[in-house]
Specification:
It contains 13 helices and 16 strands. It has a 3-stranded antiparallel β-sheet. The longest helix has 20 residues.
């Protein structure tokens, strides 16, 4: 017969330098029988900044559409991804009712502005709750003052939240760090999209003061040198050198492989800013707040400046540069960043078509997702962090942009690539991998990663499943 034992241990006090727990069982198991041992570990830590939320995890509005899809790869990937996202569901200690998704496990198991926003935005077709909780959580920690150490500025949305200072070599980030150029415009876009998806008017109204502060930051603080573009520069001397989603130190490379010096104005951030200004203006107008036309005018002027300054190449070979460096030179590598411009409104139809052709080309489409940098650039390396590897969330953002731009046919290869990768990685996509030959995961990639998991929803949406 089966023998089942339950071990119950005494209360333990664990510290950072002492966290070993050993359990012992003794059981006599007769021949041809079996034994079952179960154990449960409950932990409490009063110093954490994040906790299990009181709000439930994902509530899928159309679960039948998942099981009904004919592509077994998508069905399995989507099911596993939604399960993983529920495991990354958390809240801050001061507001456990407002859930959000941690960026990823094990390294980023906390609130990250950009990551949490993108994940919530990708999931809007299946659940509004992550957007609600993310918006409210980030609004409560919106910047109020100028602080060089934390990169805080009035109206700015934070980059990350930790219990203590994070050290990465010569880089160290305070527990609440605001070193991100894109979280603020993306927060505005998420608020607008959540409103369009059904966020109640009274809940939107509660966030309008935060919206107005974010819009003000967009124009007054985001453009540090007054050239009309959003750019970043670490003024603390110990923060992140790069503050877009590609935040590794060597991510900003010219076509010939040289590394760009800051301040850096990223191409996709200008698209986010354009969309945010337009979306913010729509919200202000709808709720009877002043300033809508000023932001629409600013967005129109930004589009003109972008068209004049960022496009490089000639004729059909034209494409937007990855960025402008501190001397306003075009950082002319061909990157996945240009795909983020699709659907933001900053491009005209012809420009969107040119970008669609680029992201669908063999130089960027690896067959296993979108490369972060083209194989034709000198800085390309297939397993670098941001200069040639494949990030599924990056690929998904571009897929969604192609669909929004009415260019879904160009997304077919990217969709198929992610589906292939989902099989190779047993339906749990890591943070990033190599797109050369077989998919090799980055050695210390998070897995699961929130926006990697959420990319399954984007693909399902693009295929009409959700």
């Amino acid at each position: 017969m089966a023998l089942s034992l339950v071990a119950q241990g005494a209360n333990l006090l664990l510290s950072e330098d002492r966290c070993r727990l050993t359990l012992h069982w003794r059981a006599a198991v007769p021949a041809a029988s079996q034994a079952s041992v179960r154990w449960r570990l409950s932990m409490q830590d009063a110093t954490t900044v994040v906790v299990a939320p009181s709000s439930p995890p994902l509530k899928i509005t159309k679960p039948g559409s998942i099981t009904a899809t004919r592509d077994h790869r998508l069905r399995s990937w989507l099911t596993r991804s939604l399960e993983d996202l529920s495991g990354l569901w958390m809240a801050t200690r001061d507001a456990p009712e407002d859930g959000f998704f941690a960026a990823g496990a094990p390294w980023y198991f906390t609130l990250f502005g950009r990551d949490s926003i993108w994940t919530a935005r990708m999931l809007l077709p299946v659940d509004l709750e992550p957007a609600r909780g993310t918006l409210r959580t980030l609004a409560r920690r919106q910047g109020r003052r100028v602080d060089l150490k934390s990169a805080e500025e009035p109206g700015k949305i934070l980059h990350e939240l930790r219990r203590s200072t994070a050290h990465f070599g010569s880089t160290w980030l305070p527990p609440v760090h605001y070193g991100t150029i894109d979280a603020t415009p993306l927060w505005i876009c998420l608020l607008h999209d959540a409103w369009q998806a059904g966020l109640p008017s009274e809940e939107v109204a509660e966030l309008l003061p935060a919206l107005e502060l974010a819009l003000k930051w967009l124009i007054e603080c985001g453009d540090a040198d007054g050239d009309g573009f959003l750019e970043y520069h670490d003024r603390s001397g110990h923060g992140l050198v790069n503050q877009g989603w590609k935040d590794s130190a060597d991510a900003m490379r010219f076509h010939d492989g040289r590394t760009a010096d800051g301040p850096v104005a990223l191409c996709e951030v200008q698209g986010y800013a354009y969309e945010a200004a337009r979306d913010g203006a729509d919200l202000l107008h709808a709720f009877g707040r002043p300033g809508a036309e000023d932001y629409r005018t600013w967005a129109s002027q930004l589009a003109i400046r972008f068209r004049a300054s960022f496009w490089c190449g000639h004729s059909d070979d034209r494409y937007p540069a990855l960025a402008l460096d501190g001397a306003k030179h075009q950082v002319d590598s061909l990157s996945s960043n240009i795909g983020h411009l699709l659907g933001t409104g900053i491009l005209n139809a012809d420009e969107e078509l040119q970008i669609a052709r680029r992201v669908a080309s063999p130089a960027l489409d690896s067959g296993l997702g979108l490369r972060t940098m083209a194989t034709t650039d000198a800085g390309y390396a297939p397993l670098s962090y941001h200069c040639g590897s494949v990030w599924p969330h990056d690929t998904a953002i571009v897929i969604a942009g192609l669909v929004r731009a009415g260019l879904a046919d160009y997304a077919r290869g990217l969709i198929e690539g992610l589906l292939r990768a989902s099989v190779a990685f047993e339906q749990r996509l890591p943070e990033l991998w190599s797109g050369e030959g077989r998919p090799v995961p980055y050695p210390v990639a998070c897995r699961p990663q929130a926006w990697s998991a959420a990319s399954a929803v984007v693909v399902a949406r693009a295929l009409g499943v959700i």
